[in-house]
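Record type: monomer structure entry
Structure origin: computed from sequence
Chain ID: A
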Amino acid sequence: MILKSSKTVTWRTFFLLVILIALSTFVLWKPKPCQNEITYSIDHVDERFGLTHEEFAIAVKLAAQMWGEPLSRQLFREDDNGKIKINLVYDYRQEASDRIKKLNYKIERSLESCEELKIRLEDLKTEYNQKKITLTGDLNAYKARVNAFNVDSEFWRRRGGGVSEKIHNKLMKEKEELNSVRGDLQGRQEEMKQMADTINSMIVVINEIAANYNLDLVDHQNIGHTLGPEFCEGLYEYKNGKQSITIYQYDNEYRLVRVLAHELGHALGLKHSTDKKAVMYRLIQSDIIELSPDEVYALKSHCGNP
């Protein structure tokens, strides 16, 4: 039987402890927040916003600088292979806002603005329903005249031998009048479609404001198409190991920067603020593109630099 020296056992124990400590450090160690720059890339910019790729990139850079300034260093950096893909997507949300703006309706996304839009919505829905009733009656009358014209035309065609000039002129006059009525009805149908689109747009904006203030939403099942999911101006997602920021709607360039800054804040790991003036407040209620004092404190605390 060979006995190992106590010195050999001690060294083996020491090396084993070193390995265990190294493994524990590797498993448990996590990089500190804000230690490394977060990279991003501009993935898609819908041309219907009227912004070039370069202009959108400038807005993203301004939003990123808002978070870096309090720490006097850069927290975000644009890179072709950036970890966060940033998109500007045009859908029913921006379309709704654009249509309302063309009608010179002021959108402040406040309770007062919401109530004013509701009043206009009810007036427009009343007008729409009245015109729809009238149009439906006129369409039925037009179809009846077309059917009668077709019956007369078929009757004289089957008789053969042609028709008198009087009958011919009568049929041609009726045909011209029917063509004129059809053109008028088509114009009115297009007008009704435009009114329905406007009503849908108003409902989108009203429901966005109402949802933000936890108010009852406006029913939209009776007019137009389905409006889509809950309204949000921007969205940060971490899904299947991939990060993305998608901007859907903004009212002006300042609000675009503010919405971007809000989503970049989520990318940093920050939660919503209870300060209504803060960028990280759940509602975008201001055009101011600077962090509130509470946000600066929260950022420094999060990044370990209070």
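Annotation 1: Residues 25-29, 221-230 have pLDDT under 50 and may be disordered.
Annotation 2: The longest helix spans residues 111-159.
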